[in-house]
Amino acid sequence: MTSNTVAMLLAGGKGTRLGELTKDIAKPAVPFGGKYRIIDFTMSNLANSGISTVGVLVQYSPLMLNKHIGIGKPWGLDRQYGGVSVLSPHSNREGSAWFSGTADAIVKNLHFIDQYEPDDLIVLSGDHIYQMDYTKMLEFHQANDADATISAIEVPWEDASRFGILNTNEDMSIYEFDEKPEEPKNNMASMGVYTFKWKTIRPYLLEDEENEDSDHDFGKDIIPMMLSDEKRLFAYNFKGYWKDVGTIKSYWEANMDLLKDDFQTLLMSKEWPTYSNEENRPPEYIGETSEITDSLISPGSFIEGKIDNSILFIGVETGKGSIIKDSIILPDAVIGEGVRLERVIVTSGVEVPDGAEILAKDEEPIVISHDTLNDYLPKGGNHNG
């Protein structure tokens, strides 16, 4: 089923809406869930689905992503044939280098795909949190003799206008694709997970590349072209947790979801493990003055104070008398003594001084970075955000 399938993982997203979290790294490389990075979930899906030929397309600030993926050993992708290949933008004869769209990223790497002569191509995003068996989607795709299959999930009706909506017949065949419609006909949203017959999609990609008016995007250009040609397109109805962590709020929510009983299998499932390229850190130290409730504490941490409904990443230090609630503390951050934090995200390596008080008053979490810390620590006292 998966032996003649190539997966292309789009991991070059700049993630501008994540602000300080993506200042120096690509969105898929942002730390998540205590000891992981966002891309680990898609990489683990591939490993658990038995898909062993993977091209990872990087672009924006790729250093950390390249280091994290390496030769793919944590995901069993360190192989002589197939395995994982990190594919960077490169100049062609016309001098164009940067990927100008999702479809363009694939076209610029046709040589990588062609060498494997696949039956099917899977195109994935590297910045979503979910667990999905791609084998089941492939079975659905092949059983319907589909030219393209798009994974879809039901979203709340009030959110449907923010997504590409798939309008389908009873057999789940797609007759219309609406990109962020003002009045959606249903709430079946595209997840940005595509399976294509390679012999069908390849000429569409080449034709689109020659169109100067195209955005070279699967959702905006390729899928509508295939529909207009009456190709066989189907929606695969995914049942499960899925989150696009494209904003500060959604990133905070997805991390907090890991603390809920309903979603703990995202990290703790023995049947569908989440793998990562972990750093070798000593066990966490929990001091005698500490009080921890409903939280994740990662290796290498040195914990004093009260931690409630929060996620502390590797190497975090918290001082005596500190109170941390509903917050995310990224790797190697240091929280001083007597600090109070509520609904905040402290970025990697930041040192919050003794006595600081930073509390978010609305739904949008506060992000504390090296550049923003002083905004919340005015001279003469603490600040209530």
TrEMBL record:
Q: What is its EC number?
A: 2.7.7.27
Describe the family membership recorded for this protein in Swiss-Prot or TrEMBL.
Answer: Belongs to the bacterial/plant glucose-1-phosphate adenylyltransferase family.
Q: Which Pfam families match?
A: Hexapep_GlmU, NTP_transferase
Q: What is this protein called?
A: Glucose-1-phosphate adenylyltransferase
Keyword Membrane applies: no
Function (record text)? Involved in the biosynthesis of ADP-glucose, a building block required for the elongation reactions to produce glycogen. Catalyzes the reaction between ATP and alpha-D-glucose 1-phosphate (G1P) to produce pyrophosphate and ADP-Glc.
Residues in domain Glucose-1-phosphate adenylyltransferase/Bifunctional protein GlmU-like C-terminal hexapeptide?
288-358
Q: Where is this site: Could play a key role in the communication between the regulatory and the substrate sites?
A: Q59, W98
Q: Which UniProt keywords apply?
A: ATP-binding, Carbohydrate metabolism, Glycogen biosynthesis, Glycogen metabolism, Nucleotide-binding, Nucleotidyltransferase, Transferase
Q: Which reaction does it catalyse?
A: alpha-D-glucose 1-phosphate + ATP + H(+) = ADP-alpha-D-glucose + diphosphate
Single annotated GO MF:
glucose-1-phosphate adenylyltransferase activity
Biochemical pathway: Glycan biosynthesis; glycogen biosynthesis
The Nucleotidyl transferase domain extends over 7-260
Q: Which residues bind alpha-D-glucose 1-phosphate?
A: G164, E179, K180, S190
Subunit-structure text = Homotetramer.
What organism, scientifically named, is this protein from? Salinicoccus siamensis
